[in-house]
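User: Hi! Is it possible to get a structure for several chains at once, not just one? Here's what I have:
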Amino acid sequence: MIATIVDTNALWQTIAGAFVAGVGTTIVFSLAILGAARFSEASREGHRLHATFFGALMAISLLLTAAAIVVGVIVMTTKS
Amino acid sequence: VSESDLILGIVVATALAFDFTNGFHDTANVVATSISTRAMPPRIAVGYAAVLNFAGAFISLAVAATVAKDVVDAGAITPTVIYAGLIGAIAWNLTTWYFGLPSSSSHALIGGVVGSTFVAAGADAIFGEGILGKVLVPALIAPVLAFVVGGIGIVACYRIIGRQKPGPVTRGFRLGQILSGGLLALAHGTNDAQKTMGVITLALVANGSISAEAEVPTWVIVSAASAIALGTYTGGWRIIKTMGTKIIKMDSAQGFSAQGAGAAVILASSHFGYPLSTTQVIAGGVMGAGAGKRISAVRWGVAGDIVSAWLLTLPAAAAIGGITYAFVNLFPGAVGPLIVSALGIGLVIYAFARRMRKVEMVPA
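Assistant: Yes, the chains can be modeled jointly so their relative placement is included. Here is the combined structure:
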């Protein structure tokens, strides 16, 4: 009976989408902060290879965070 | 001015008053975490949220005029029914503000309209399945989903940044909160200002001022956006305190995780067409971010008060809406709404004055 009252398809999609977006964005932004912290540490100590790796981690993670925000705004503007 | 136009004018003013309380009441959900982790100063945070709420109201008009759809029989809706429903919603919003409890403005509005429709047209005009599917089941799912997403998010976050120096980490997450808080405010504007636009449009249609197929008039969009932004800027500081410091004492990572979980759940529910309450989602996210660090970090007594307010929202707003409709109907024409509005304004002034006096009595 509940299945006829509740749109279970939309419900499962909402749960999956919220989980991926919410946990995913937190992980990606945490990686950006880790990258930034370790990049500045490695740069200060003159470890160029480490600095390059963590700099790249920071840049990619920030790009992914920005992409998540853009997707969020698109979702808002195109909701039906 | 004809009598029906006068009633319509009162309904529009009441709808805008509801919109103001919606912004005022729900500001807390958007800005509380940013303020408590010092990501932004309080006035800047509410100003930022007000601007984005205003902008959000213009982004999408897709859900206007659907606020009570599937919950009550559209044929039973009259301007007086809408008026009584709005009074139920405003009264409940102000009551929960008085006690500093975050509750759903949307559920209050639906409850108010259900109550007034019940008194006006009887039980047959109420769609029980609609209430179950659109209000009760989502009310169960929203906080639980946000709790789980916020909780798992903060656990993953602490694993990643656990051994770093706290200074840069705190600064980084505070910056992140400015973005996640902005997304939340924008999402709130797109969702909640729409409801007032829907209510005013419904009243205009019921009054015969516009046809049912007409688009939402520009003045309705501008006035609804302005009312919610103004309410947001005024700021419901009592609820901000509950959301920001009373449920958990949060750090900036928890604030980011709670806001990220809230934004993700709201946007996912918008995208897949599953209606969830903004208030319940964010409160669930805050509790999840607290419990993810340590279960005992959440003040479960405060959480219990909030859940009680959620459970009471629909029946309490419905009861006030129903009683208001019955009272208004005792008088001819616009006399009833005028009396109720005057009484309501008097009560609001009294409650504000009482609250302000209590604040002044607390030593600095």
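The CA atoms of residues 29 and 65 of chain A lie 6 Å apart. Chain A is about 90% helix and 0% strand.

User: Great, thank you!
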